[in-house]
Amino acid sequence: MAPIALALNGLRRQPQFHLVSNEDSVYEQDILRDPGSVKPWLAYIDFKLRHGTMVEQAFVMERACAQLPRSYKLWKLHVAKLNPAIFATEYRKANALFERALILLNKMPRIWEMYLKFLSQQPLVTFTRRAFDRALRALPISQHNRIWAVYRPFANSAAGETAVKIWRRYLQVHPEDAEDFIELLVQTGLYTEAAAKFIDILNNTRFVSKHGKGHFELWSEMVDMLVEHAAEIETGYETGIDAERIIRSGISRFADQRGKLWAGLATYWIRRGSFERARDVFEEGITTVMTVRDFTLIFESYTEFEESIIGTLMEVASVRAEKGLEDEEADFELDIRMMRFEQLMDRRPFLLNDVLLRQNPNSVPEWEKRVALWGGNKREVAQTYTDAIAAIQPKRAVGAFHQLWASYAKFYEQGGDLRNARIIMEKAVKVPFKSVAELADMWIEWAEMELRNENFDDAVRIMAKAVQAPKRSTVDYFDESLSPQQRVHKSWKLWSFYVDLVESVSTLEETKKVYERIFELRIATPQTVVNYATLLEEHKYYEESFKIYERGLDLFSYPVAFELWNLYLTKAVDRKIGIERLRDLFEQAVEDCPPKFAKTIYLMYGNLEEERGLARHAMRIYERATRAVADEDRADMFNLYITKSASNFGLPSTRPIYERAIAALPDSEAKDMCLKFADMEKRLGEIDRARAIYGHASQFCDPRTNPEFWTKWEQFEVQHGNEDTFKEMLRIKRSVQAQYNTDVNFIASQALARSQRRPGTDDAEISDAMAALERQSRAPQGFVTATTGSNGGSAMPTAVVASNPDAIDIDGLDD
After folding, report:
1. Where is each Pre-mRNA-splicing factor Syf1/CRNKL1-like C-terminal HAT-repeats domain found (predicted)?
2. pLDDT tier, 792 (very low <50, low <70, confident <90, very high otherwise)
């Protein structure tokens, strides 16, 4: 129940003066003293709210509103104290109270808000809608937002046509909420109006989505709706909606969505029942898209469409067959659609190839794939070659464009039409290819075609035409500003094929002319020189062959010249020409030869003198070689020099060679040379000289890293020395070890070793390197037996313990 509403009803029927108590007299007197003031009434109402009953509160508020009907405070306080109603009668009485308040307070938005919210709780849609309309008419437009904030939820709850009409009015004031209106239209099923609204906001450049959606996202939502509800949307001039035009505009504008949009447009016509138009759209899509992804998307949709139609027709045919009915037209249509589907699947490789060619019509491999697709269809193959040559721009060709021309000519050649093949070749050599190499390959292909057909003279004539050039050509082969046709006469590949061809089918004189022309154009390579010289040698023109080598040496420097000298000198030596001429050649060869290549030439030179000249000259050459060769070859050269000198003049002749080798070689190689020198002296019986050599070599040998040297010296002293010489060897060994121990790196390594050694190690014993050396020098020295002393003798009473690891204990010593 609503007690206040009932109280109001009773108050209107008869006065209720008994509701005024003695405690109210103060407030009643204040009201009598100032009847036009709101303040006494507010105080009176506040008192009743704290101490009065509901009926008393209603009685006082009703009197106040009747006394001051234009008081916003009193009316707001009055209607705010209404209790929630339960029955319809109470709702109507409360509504009546709001209506009374709004008679004079129709400009008060808060009263309207309270009233409209109260009405929204009641199932009075029309009455409530009219109340909202009255509020919008009564209030100024600046306050309409407060009403719309309540009106919109009411419209959404009302739904249907009512909600749509309310939202249409709302958008006139707030067009930024068009997305919510479109959502409502879609939910209501008014797809045509939703599409029209989409078009409005997309055409409005100032529209900004309050949901953060971009122009493309809104456009995509519209297209999805157009496709999904194609049958329900009215299109035409009257509605201003042209779905096909909208989707096609997206196809031209959004390149990355073309596959999806083509499939969507076809689906639109399928849902409208226009299957033939859908098929036309599919065909247009697969023949215009530029990417394989889009093609795959459209083609799969196309095949699914065809399969669904065929499946439906087959089901109908099956039902018809079960009933024993015949329909030739239906069966014919099914056959036609089956044939169309098979043809579509057969066309797939060609359609996919079309896509790749649309991406890049200059792709030679894709054109070759298209030729392969046609297989034995000669007419289509020829047409494909024609289309490819017309489409490809030579400067932008991807792949071997000349190979496409060659394949085109070979197609006619294999068909026995050599005349057309030659016409194609003539056109091909005039094409401005990207590089000279491609043009050269084209000329070679033409010549090879003539060779395959045994037209040898024509092949030579073609190559002569290819390399035709002025007598003195100043053209730079690498000058990209000139066309390939202007530079092709300097192509080594072309000349190489030409000279091989002339050599195989023409005379020697013709071949020599070609080689001479190569030298004139200054495009000869080392291989050209070798081939020319070998050709002349095969025909017994040895002197001319040697001249070719000399011309090649004038053209090329090292390292190429080394290979030419190697061949030239070998050929000259084998020909047994005069020794003086050979010496002149070798002198020319070694004159400017870098050390890296000198060893081989000097060895050949020395070998020549040994075989055909004088041994003295050979030794002089080997001596020069030890100075001319590279550092890594010098030790080998000295060893060879020593060997040759010993074999020709005896071992004593090698002494100055050894001495110079030891002085010239680095320490690591000088050590080995000293050992060989000492061994040689030992064999000659020159023990003192050998000992002196060991002493000289000791400065290169650290006892820690070269123990084998000191072992050999020790063995030498044991065999050939005495006590004094052995002591001297040990003294030298200690001094050398001390010399190397003072090296900074050794000291650092010793310090690192000490820091890593176990704590239990005797620190006094390993204090530092110098202290160790001092202890070593103070240790008692052992003795060695001289080779000339007595073998017998009494033993020492006690053994001497030597702390020096290099000292040797003996049991007797002769005075």
Report:
1. 394-776
2. very low
- Of residues 803 and 320, more confidence is placed in 320
What pLDDT is attached to residue 356?
92
Separation between Cα atoms, residue 599 and residue 501, nearest integer Å = 39
Task: Name the amino acid, one letter, at 4.
Answer: I
Residue 245 near residue 223, CB atoms below 8 Å = no
Q: Is residue 406 scored above 80 in pLDDT?
A: yes
pTM of the model: 0.65
- Give which of 83, 36, 102 is closest to 64, Cα–Cα: 36
Q: Beta partners for 236?
A: 241
Cβ(459)–Cβ(450) under 8 Å?
Answer: yes
Q: Are 251 and 261 in contact (CB under 8 A)?
A: yes
User: In Å, how far are 113, 141, 170, 801 from 145, measured between CA atoms?
Assistant: 11, 8, 10, 117
**DSSP alpha helices (H): ranges in 629-722?**
631-649, 655-664, 667-683, 687-697, 707-720
Model confidence over 417-437: pLDDT tens digits? 889 999 999 998 888 888 888
Cα 97 to Cα 446: distance, rounded to the nearest angstrom: 109
> Which tokens sit at 65?
């509103």
| Distance between CA atoms of residues 196 and 232, nearest Å | 13
Task: Specify the pLDDT at position 573.
Answer: 80
What does the block give as tokens for 5? Answer: 């509403």
pLDDT tens per residue across span 459-480: 989 888 888 876 667 677 777 7
- CA angle 22–23–25, rounded 5-degree value: 70
> Rounded to the nearest 5°, which phi and psi values hold at 810?
-125, 160
Question: Partners of 398 in the beta sheet?
Answer: 363
* Amino acid symbol at 262: W
Query: How far is the C-alpha of 586 from the C-alpha of 580, rounded, in Å?
Result: 10
Tokens of 549: 């080598």
Of 119, 55, 110, 57, which is closest to residue 85 (Cα–Cα)?
Answer: 119
Phi (first) and psi of residue 207, to 5 degrees = -70, 135
659 closest CA partner among 682, 641, 685: 641
- Asked whether the beta carbons of 86 and 77 are under 8 A apart, the reply is no
**pLDDT score at 386:** 92
